[in-house]
Input
Amino acid sequence: MHIETLLAHTGCLDDPETGAIVAPIHLSTTFHRNDDGTYPRGFIYSRDNNPTRNLFEQTLALIEGGEDCTSFSSGMAATHAIIQALAPGSHVIIPDDVYHGLTNLADNMFGNWGISFDRAKMTNLDDIAQRITPQTQLIWLETPSNPMLQIADIRSITQLAKKHGVYVVVDSTWTTPLLQKPLDLGADLVIHSVTKYLAGHSDVLGGAVVARTHTPLSEAIRDIQKSCGAVMDPFSAWLTMRGMRSLSSRLKTQCQNAHAVAQFLAGHPLVEQVHYPGLSNHPGHSIAKLQMSHFGAMLSFQVIGKARRAFSVAAQTKIFQRATSLGGTESLIEHRASIEPESSQTPENLLRLSIGLEYVNDLLQDLDSALKD
Ligand SMILES: *Cc1c(COP(=O)(O)O)cnc(C)c1O
Output
């Protein structure tokens, strides 16, 4: 079945007892045990296993084309689980432009755990190759990157990693399985903050890791999920499945809107630069065209001027809401450098946009009047 069909039926079933079309939410934390001590239906306790969470995990694994999916209480819990699953002494290569939550874990959390990190320019294969050491266990990719929308060539990087026996994980939060399928391109793991496009309505926190095949790493992630307990709760799993049913039509409109916004800003006299891989002059455009089915609904741009000017543009928008996060139906605008740590290299005049489902001319007008004010 096509991925769009699978998505449209997420969380649906023919319930043998009631005939219900939509799967119920199982809130029960515990399950009946037989008099011989066995658990006839396979469920013991909801931290280990929950029917609603299992249904979400099975669906996402199928949609990504992976053998296993583990879900978590947030994207960061999922991120943390992947790194925690590595042996002490491991070395991880992360992008120099990446979601700042990962940089925070690298700088402030995992030093004590004996894991070291190195930042590479993921647009440059030689730069990555030079940083691989005998201790390197994992290369972390995020493409398009946050917030500079750089494009990493997933296939070439996974080929390089394989030569050295290194795992590759791709953060697919921005692309969803509809726009990019990293496991098909050779990646070992895909991670999602389901908080964003999969749930899609700015009202759920969740994360998930999908493994192409069962490996010692994926088994360790499963053990961490069950033992450490940062599991996705049943209601969040159910809401996420509800969101996924409309993902393909939401994302199509959002991508179209984003492309129009990028083109509009690229031609605007008060804009210095636009970062969107769908623009033909974007340095990653040709790779993006090969590995993505659309260019996504996230973009960033630099205004002519300094941080103050960027703040004042964001202050003037009426339809774009000033908030962090992304992937909801409403468009958001954010001054990114001021939410990132001080070490951030994000330009001070950069604004990041998450494009929603509004009528596109309303979005263009909103940006135009905010820029002219
Ligand atoms: C939001 C986000 C995360 C973190 O996910 P949470 O659900 O907020 O914990 C990780 N990666 C990317 C690309 C994100 O946008």
Observations:
- The CA atoms of residues 237 and 370 lie 38 Å apart.
